[in-house]
Amino acid sequence: MKFLYAMLTISLLAAPAAASPVWYSATLSGAAENPPNASPGTGTAMVGYDAATHMLKVKVSFSGLTGGTTASHIHCCTAAPMSGNAGVATEVPTFSGFPLGVTSGTYDEMFDLTLAASFNPAFVTAQGSVAAAEMALAAGLASGTAYLNIHTADHPTGEIRGFLTPASSNVPEPATLALIGAGLLGVWRLRRKAA
User: Fold this and answer.
1) What is the pLDDT of residues 161-184, one digit of tens each?
2) Do residues 17 and 51 make contact, with C-beta atoms less than 8 angstroms apart?
3) Residue 52 lies in a domain
4) Could you tell me which of 60, 67, 64, 52 has the C-alpha nearest to residue 22?
5) By C-alpha distance, which of 51, 54, 32 is closest to 159?
6) Does 172 map to a domain?
7) Concatenated DSSP letters for 28-79?
8) Number of domains in the chain
9) pLDDT for 117-154, tens place per residue?
10) Is residue 84 within 8 Å of residue 34, measured between CB atoms?
11) Which residues form the signal peptide (predicted)?
12) How many alpha carbons lie under 13 Å from residue 136 in its C-beta half-sphere?
């Protein structure tokens, strides 16, 4: 019986190791820039970080910008969560393939964080290595001290931005919760029979 409990415990603890990316989301606006601006532009960003594969997924949708886009990237890490400014952590001057010269668009790309090309060289230098840069970016995402912004010709320091925070997609699906519940019920029944 102890073997059964040990195997169940191991399987429950091993499940997170095979977990999919942790997702972070942001609502982008001019009011979130520092200093704030009156841009009518809006946007959303979803960033998924997978520590096991060292991959970063970036999905952005934006519209209503006052000028054509000139750059977009993730900045990290501010001194306090959800406030301040920080240097660029990811590719400079912009994400590879980000739509430039437009006032609306979408973007969906994957980055290999084991490659120096996925980062701003100054960010890697400040951290000491590519691996340390990945860890710093991951920590910034987890702590709310990283933000994504979009720069335009009308707002060269940034027209819209948003701090990345844990997304609701990180909450287990109802089916997953039901499966966990069924497993716990089975363990409880086995313990009752053994008692």
Assistant:
1) 999 999 976 544 444 445 445 554
2) no
3) yes
4) 52
5) 32
6) no
7) EESTTSSS------EEEEEEEEETTTTEEEEEEEEE--SS-EEEEEEEE--S
8) 1
9) 999 999 999 999 999 999 999 999 999 999 999 999 99
10) yes
11) 1-19
12) 24
The enclosing domain of 77 has a CATH number of 2.60.40
Range of the domain at 118: 20-163
- Determine how many CB atoms are found less than 10 A away from the CB of residue 155: 20
Q: How many C-beta neighbours within 10 Å does residue 81 have?
A: 14
Q: What percent of the chain has pLDDT over 70?
A: 76
Tokens 């977009």 map to which residue? 72
Q: Which amino acid is at 114?
A: T
Strand ranges (E), 99-140: 105-112
Beta carbons within 8 Å of 175's beta carbon, 6+ residues apart: none
Q: Note whether 57 and 47 are within 8 A (CB).
A: yes
Helices (H) then strands (E): counts for the chain: 4, 8
d(CA 175, CA 167): 19
From CA 43, how far away is CA 104, in angstroms rounded?
Answer: 9
Mind giving me the DSSP string for 151-178? EESS-TT-SEEEE-EE-GGGSPPHHHHH
Length of the chain: 195
